[in-house]
Amino acid sequence: MKDQDGDTSGKPGSLLDPEAHILVVEDDGEMRTLIAKFLRQNGFRVTGARDGREMWDTLAGSPVDLVLLDVMLPGQSGLDLCRALRGKSGVPIIMVTARGEETDRVLGLELGADDYIPKPFGRAELLARVRALLRRSRGEAGQPVAGTAGERLVFAGWTLDTRRRELAAPDGTVIDLSGGEYDMLLAFCEHPQRVLSREQLLDLARNRMAFNGTERAVDVMVSRLRRKLEPTEDGPPIIKTIRGAGYMLVPAVKRAT
């Protein structure tokens, strides 16, 4: 049975993120309660979970807009849960790490997390990251990205719908993208057939990507995109590595409304 922070009652949703439901997965009861209380004070619905079992129970029972997932959990680790959750859902995930080492951050991103926040963290930083990720996952309150407003970007049979923030495969299958994956792919589509350095990709996606971007984080996002765009090694490359220079989206991009 969930403890008191499992109650999802709270103030009405904030003006920025109305009725957003956040799932806090944290085995430390005091920390879980403090996070839940703070988020409720800022207008969010919050459900607390001690471990993976309670996390899955919550996800099965009600829609969740964002998961705040601690790395160190009893039973299945937060990293294992992140991998399993990303395989089932595109829900935004913020990993909470006990330390800010790059290896922890990169591994979380490789497994599908959208952002990370190291302990100890300030309340203002937590709130800023939650709001930024919710805005991005909702397409800036339903508004398409400037410069591609309402457009579908078509390349090599794939279609990136900037209004729905969806990627469709050549056979029409919708492919789940995390917020970071979408942001990086959009940056490529806005500059096709052009070599982009890691620094340029960070600059192009900086206003959209919630996590603290590093050049290694760019490599992680490109690797994740390749696994979805290039499922077999026999097919033509979609994103090509240019040794010593960066990456390039190989096919031309057509814009359609």
Radius of gyration: 19 Å
Uncertain residue segments: 1-17, 140-147
Distance between the termini: 49 Å
Q: What structural class do helix, strand and pairing data support?
A: alpha/beta
Task: Please provide the count of β strands.
Answer: 12
CATH architecture of the largest domain: 3-Layer(aba) Sandwich
Verbal overview:
- With 257 residues, this protein is an alpha/beta fold.
- The chain contains nine helices and twelve strands.
- The strands form three sheets. A five-stranded parallel sheet has the order 2-1-3-4-5, sandwiched between helices. It has a five-stranded antiparallel sheet with strand order 9-8-7-6-12, with helices on one face. The protein has a two-stranded antiparallel ribbon with strand order 10-11.
- A hairpin with a 4-residue loop joins strand 7 and strand 8.
- The chain is globular, with a radius of gyration of 19 Å.
- The termini are far apart.
- It holds the Pfam family Trans_reg_C.
- One of its GO terms (molecular function) is phosphorelay response regulator activity.
- It comes from Neoroseomonas marina.
